[in-house]
Amino acid sequence: MSDRQPPRPTDSELAILGVLWERGPSTVRDVHEQLNKDGSTGYTTILKLLQIMTEKGLVVRDETERAHVYQSRYGEQKTQRQLLADLAERAFGGSATKLVMQALSSRKTNAAELNAIRELLDTLEGESR
Amino acid sequence: MSDRQPPRPTDSELAILGVLWERGPSTVRDVHEQLNKDGSTGYTTILKLLQIMTEKGLVVRDETERAHVYQSRYGEQKTQRQLLADLAERAFGGSATKLVMQALSSRKTNAAELNAIRELLDTLEGESR
DNA sequence: TGACATCAACGAAAAACTTCGTATGATTGC
DNA sequence: GCAATCATACGAAGTTTTTCGTTGATGTCA
Question: CA B80: distance to chain centroid?
Fold first, then answer.
C-alpha cells in the first residue's frame, strides 16, 4: 500500500518536469530561470510547486546541499505514455488506435516524418508476428 | 470579444460530453442515468456541471421545454483534436509526430489496426505530394 | 384540488491548483 | 563580525473543480 501509481501532473507541474527532463537534476533557481524566460512566475511559486510535487512523489529531492536538488522521478517517455493512456481512456473510449488515427489525420506531416512512422509500423508488425 | 476559443474540458465535463456525443441532445436526467450505471454522482451534480458548461460555452441549452435539453457545442472529433494538440504542446514539445510515435510504440496493436493506420498514412502521403 | 413527482436555480462546502508574502536560517563578501 | 544575499518553510489568499442540499416553481394524477 506504499507506492501507488503516480498522479497525473497538472499543467504547471508538467512545465517543471519538462525543465527537469531537459536539464537533469536542478535546483529551484535553475528551474525558475529556465521557466521565466517568457512567462513570469515568482521564485517561491516554483519552490512551492516542487515541494508539493515531492509530496506527491512526482520528483525526488536531494537535500545534501543547501540548495536542494530535484529530479523527476519518472522518465519523460514513461510520463508521456501515462498521459497518452489517460487521454485515450478519457476521450477516445479507451482506444489508443483511435487516438493515433485522429492525431495523424488532423495535421500536416512532412514526408520524413511519415517515413519515420512507417518504419515504426514495420517494426511493430514484425514484433506482432 | 464574444466567442473566444473553448476551454479545455475537465475530466467530469469530458465524461458528460461523451454521453452527449453518444446520445445526442439530452436532458440532465438522461445524462445522469447514463453516467450512474457504474459510478455514483448525484443528479444535481450533473445539473450544476451542465450549467457551468453552458456558461463556459462547452454546451448549448435549449430551454423551450421544462426539462432543458443540452447538446455539445463542439463535435467529438474537433474536441479530440483540440485535446491532442493541447497534449502535444504541453508534453511533447509541440510535436504531434512525437506524440504519435510514442502512442504507437507503447502498446500492442493488432494487425488489422496496423493496417488501418498504414492505409491512413498512404492517404496522407498522397495529399502531401 | 391536493399530494406527489420533477425540474432548475442557488448557495455552500471541500478539495485541488496557483500564486506569493513573510519569516527564518545558512552562506558569503568585505 | 556583520550586512547583504540566498535558500527553505510556512501560511494564506484567490481560483477552479466537484459535490450536494435546499428551495421554489411547475406539472401530474387520483
Answer: 5
3-state secondary structure (DSSP) of residue A129: coil
Contact B63, B30 (CB under 8 A): no
Report which residue is nearest nucleotide C7 when distances run from CA to C1'.
B67
The pLDDT of residue A97 is above 80: yes
Residue B49 approaches strand C within 7 Å at CB? no
Q: Which residue of A has its CA nearest to B17?
A: A91
All three cell numbers of B93? 514539445
B40 beta carbon < 7 A from strand D?
yes
- pLDDT per position as a tens digit, B22-37: 999 999 999 999 998 8
**Which residues of A in 77-106 have their CB below 7 Å from strand C's atoms?**
none
Phi, psi of B105 (to 5 degrees): -80, -10
B42, closest nucleotide (Cα–C1')? D20
The end-to-end CA distance of chain A, in Å, is: 38
Asked whether the CA dihedral B88, B93, B97, B99 is positive or negative, the reply is: negative
Altogether, the residues listed in chain B come to a count of 129
